[in-house]
Amino acid sequence: MAISETRTLPAQFITDVGKDYATQLKGLTSIPLDTGKFAPQVAPQDPAQAQAYQLGQAGVGAYEPYLTQAGAYAGPTGYQQFTSPYQQDILDTTMADFDVQAQKGIAGIGQLAAKSGNLGGGREGVMRSEYQSSSDRQRAGLLAQLRQQMFGQAQGLAQQGYQQQMQMGQQLPAWQAGDISQLGQLGGIQQAQAQAELGATQEANRMTAMEPYERLGTYGSGVTGLISGMPGQYGTTVMPNPTPLQTALGTASVLGGVYGNIGNRQGTTVNQQQYQPQNPFAYDWMGRQKDPTGGDPF
What we know:
Helix content: 55-70%
Structural class: mainly alpha
Number of strands: 0
Largest sheet: none
Oligomer: single chain
Strand content: under 5%
Shape: rod-shaped
């Protein structure tokens, strides 16, 4: 006695669609993705940032020359750098004028001695000696006073120079920090813009590369819907970005669902002796078997 086996097969167009999907999936996944086109990239430093870095390096110890110069002004001979090159001329001229006036005083003593009849006498000699001693003291005092004034002026200028150098040395790091900060901020804005452009290009390349996978995934979702009798779920992936491996695995899972459903619909073959194909027109558009009495399926 022959064993008769009856199978419930899906409609032929569903089988054709499933095979077409499998063919496209195999062809798509056999082509390696050029991941370099959408690999993450880091925008390089902006020229302003590089300049800020160079200023930062150059600024280390930049105050030292000012401190060295200030130390030279503070030494025991620091005032000499601020003495007037015409100092000796001033001293010589002033002393020459003083000597002229002193000679006039001596001449006056002779005139007085002549009038009094003591010209050439001892009294005139004493007067001349006293006058000369007093004149020499005045001359030495005037010369010392002039030199003290000149030293005081030079010393004051040296002190002023010392303070200025110290202030420059102290303020230089702050000035440099301001420049570095400004350049860093401006460069950071430009780098952020460049990074955003790289990201946009990367995302555009990723979307281009993944579009066939998403399209095939949508196709597979529709195939699954035809087999299961449920409408497929359609969507697109924007964020987070799937990797090619994740997408391929997801697409393969759709294929597994398709053929899993097909296998469940076909049932199990037991000692096949006779195969009786079913009339494809006995199924509705979703692949469900029609009620032979004309009623609704299931």
